[in-house]
Design goal:
alpha+beta; FAD/NAD(P)-binding domain; 9-stranded mixed sheet; 3-stranded antiparallel sheet; 12 helices; oxidoreductase activity; FAD-binding oxidoreductase; FAD-dep_OxRdtase; oxidoreductase
Length: about 400
């Protein structure tokens, strides 16, 4: 999503653009999310600091987070930085930076989707967050006050109102719910990215399907070495390869503390005539149930493991009985769960910047849980910076140099 939208913004500005993707656009990380465009996502997903939850994570028994013991030595340095960056004051700085980053994200998607003839993929019914305890509802009061202060429509429906919003949702196990009224949901995230890619081509951009195996400087510009295809040379390059960005950048000697949050999904047929009209987040367990073309998509929370580690979809197995308490999920549509990887930085802010010491190489990755939401605004922002227009918003919180102090 981020790469395609950056390419569109650059083509609109008059640049000659080639987008390189090892698969068709929209087949990797952007394919497997919950399909929610989240203007309320200004509050970052920070590492919990509750002792009880930390013990649960250490014992590897929680639904919303899991780690592979064989990968622990590899992921531990990132987890430590993530924990340190999740102090309340640092989380607040990320929230404040996100206010301008997320501004206009829904409208930007709406305009692109209309132009790409893909508006039919989007539903404007908001997002539900269901809570299993009164304490959990009280814990959200500060966040909800922030959102209302920003002018966002947020409500806390009672059981009757909740049943009107989602007639087939079982509310017996719930203490309450939050209805974020402004998010849009997409019934096929991969198809939306594909539609945007088709729009890119109609605007004059080119798409090359090949794997980039290396980047290097070349005659005042940049060379992309491709597997089984001729190299590409350009005046400037944008690295927006999501979870693959770190390895390509380290090949140039620049190390940034990016980590990986792996995630799974699987589609299920609903039982009988049951249906959902919007995505539902189980606050206590970290999974999402989202209505998709293929059925109800059950997504997992975060798994911390090497990017190339074997799949271990234990979180989906743990989430299933809890999800079925709320909704009549039937048999799985596909045999094997999908697995993808979210690129994240410890402070849960992306890097959108010219690479330090590598003039002409621009970075647009690390959007974590919100790459699908932020693609159009992030792409527009980076294109403006590349053209010397100062960016769409203050670029300082998203500079790579913020990690220079370690």
């Amino acid at each position: 999503m981020v790469g395609v939208c950056t390419a569109i913004a650059l083509v609109r500005a008059g640049a000659d653009v080639v987008l390189v993707d090892r698969r068709a656009p929209g087949r990797e990380t952007s394919f497997g999310n919950a399909g929610v465009i989240q203007p309320e996502g200004v509050h970052p997903y920070m590492f919990p600091r509750s002792v009880t939850r930390l013990i649960g994570y250490a014992l590897n028994r929680r639904v919303e987070a899991h780690y592979q013991p064989s990968s622990l030595a590899h992921v531990a340095p990132f987890l430590w930085r993530y924990f340190r960056s999740s102090r309340p004051d640092r989380a607040r700085r990320t929230y404040e930076a996100n206010i301008t980053l997320f501004d206009g994200c829904v409208e930007a998607h709406g305009a692109l989707a209309e132009e790409a003839d893909a508006a039919h993929l989007l539903t404007k019914k908001g997002l539900l967050r269901v809570l299993r305890s009164e304490a959990a509802l009280r814990a959200l009061e500060g966040e909800l006050a922030d959102l209302r202060g920003l002018g966002m429509a947020v409500s806390t429906p009672d059981a009757k109102a909740l049943s009107e919003l989602e007639p087939h949702l079982n509310t017996d196990a719930l203490a309450g719910a939050v209805h974020y009224e402004e998010p849009w949901t997409c019934q096929d995230p991969g198809a939306l990215v594909s539609a945007y890619a088709a729009l890119l081509e109609s605007l004059g951009g080119r798409i090359v399907q090949a794997e980039v195996v290396g980047l290097s400087g070349a005659a005042g510009g940049w060379r992309a070495a491709l597997r089984d295809a001729p190299d590409l040379i350009a005046d400037r390059a944008v690295l927006a390869a999501g979870p693959w960005s770190k390895a390509l950048l380290e090949g140039l000697g620049l190390r940034l503390p990016m980590g990986i949050k792996r995630g799974y999904h699987r589609h299920h047929a609903p039982v009988g005539n049951a249906f959902l009209t919007r995505a539902v987040i189980d606050d206590a367990n970290g999974y999402v149930m989202a209505p998709m073309r293929r059925g109800i998509r059950l997504t997992s929370g975060a798994e911390f493991a090497r990017h190339d580690a074997p799949p271990t979809p234990v979180q989906l197995e743990r989430a299933m009985p809890r999800a079925r308490e709320l909704f009549a999920l039937g048999e799985a549509v596909e045999e094997t769960p999908w697995l993808g990887a979210r690129p994240v930085f410890p402070d849960m802010r992306p890097v959108m910047d010219e690479a330090p010491g590598l003039a002409g190489l621009w970075l647009n990755f690390g959007h974590g849980h919100q790459g699908f939401t932020l693609g159009p605004v992030a792409g527009d922002h980076l294109a403006r910076m590349m053209l010397g227009q100062g960016g769409r918003f203050d670029p300082a919180p998203f500079r790579a140099a913020r990690f220079a102090a370690g």
